[in-house]
Amino acid sequence: MRTSRSLRARLTALVTGAATAAAAALLTLGAAPAQAAGTPLRDLAAAKGKVMGTAVTGSKLTGTYGEIASREFNALTPGNAMKWGSVEPTRGNFDWAEADRIVTFAEAHGQQLRGHTLVWHSQNPSWLTNGSWTSAELGQLMKDHIALEVGRYKGRLATWDVVNEPFNEDGTYRQTLWYNGLGADYIAQALTAARAADPSAKLYINDYNVEGVNAKSTALYNLVKSLKERGVPIDGVGLQAHLILGQVPSTMQQNIQRFADLGVDVAITELDIRMQLPADSAKLTRQAADYKAVMNACLAVSRCVGVTVWGFTDSDSWIPDTFPGQGAATPYDENYAPKPAYHAIAEALGGTTTPPPTGACTATYSVTSQWNTGFTGQVRIACSGAALSSWKVGWTFGAGQRITQAWNAGCTQSGAAVTCSNASYNGTVPDGGSVTFGFNGSWSGSNPVPTVSLG
Ligand code: 9MR
């Protein structure tokens, strides 16, 4: 089942070839679909037998966020909801609400689920990290946790990241609660417990900075090899791929292939590509090429099952909090407009999207929420390879809607025709930048999205 399409309809008016503010201000051209021309990523991926996933935040799975998550992706990973600290904040007291919500959403939309993550050094509850445990107690806690959480979703999750981030950069084992208490064998014990709890789930070890051939990925390779030789259940390796603009490892495909040759699957599990802010059209173009390179590395290896992005919108990305001054790492901007990276992913998957021409400013109308007789909408004006010093957008409502209130723009309505102009403080839209204004309106019967022109 797919969610209603009414909220996701959005139209873009292209001011083509508007290299200057003056030219852009003079032109009022007809609308072209922003992304309707493109097949959703999930359908493109499915046609190739691949996963195209995203990490999600359960509480956000409504409105435009939920629309995109369900329309574009055939797999979901809870970004935080299944971590130990989330599900058992105090010992013996469980909170499955967000995890359950994501699982239910995914099932309603025919999406695979990737459980994340069971045994990690981070985001553990304080009762666990602050406790003093014997080795036997720690081993039992770990196994009980795995049995409980994997068992809860038995048969419903395609995959589990059983062990997360076990290695240091030099390929030695990370000194964690688990390693210090149980030795390196904690990994085999965790995998064995997960297999017992859900024999049908694919079991992965997941780590970062293991995308190319290096000391860390070689340690992971040697571990997987020895686990396979010992008969420990291991089905795949997750290469997180938290990458930096312009730094996709050149050995990525070769690295994926060597794991595949060991007889395990490979997944790109947490892809994002961060840049120094502000973003501009040159950086976004480079980012698109980087996204395509990662997609192509996976697509070239049959045992690479697919790619998951670590959040699909810049408004739901961990990067700005962790790397101050950096961001714009995901395929959609913070207003849910697809970036060049989105189009690059689609193209790598065999799609034929038509990205906005370079040297254009676009206006995108969307309904952000809707109730009985009212709605809230927004229009986003974005420039790439062009800029504006003032703007005016117009549209004609098709079903009697009326604007009741607007903010960040001056709007007038005459009959069905609406005209909105910039406020005194937001007329400038720089190259690579955007401005958004919002409004409330009334509707009855239907609330179709109008064609917007930017002039
Ligand atoms: O996206 C997650 C973010 O919201 C959390 O604050 C953070 C805490 O470490 O974890 C993020 O996800 C991580 C993932 O679980 C494992 N690989 C690295 C990810 C980014 O930190």
Automatic annotation (TrEMBL):
Active-site residues (renumbered): E270 (nucleophile)
GH10 domain ranges (all copies): 38-348
Signal peptide annotation: 1-36
Enzyme class: hydrolase
E.C. number(s) listed in UniProt: 3.2.1.8
Catalytic activity annotation: Endohydrolysis of (1->4)-beta-D-xylosidic linkages in xylans
Positions of the CBM2 domain: 354-455
Alphabetic keyword roster: Carbohydrate metabolism, Glycosidase, Hydrolase, Polysaccharide degradation, Signal, Xylan degradation
Keyword Nucleotide-binding: no
GO biological process, one term: xylan catabolic process
Similarity comment text for this entry: Belongs to the glycosyl hydrolase 10 (cellulase F) family.
Protein name in the entry: Beta-xylanase
Taxonomic lineage of the native organism: Bacteria, Bacillati, Actinomycetota, Actinomycetes, Kitasatosporales
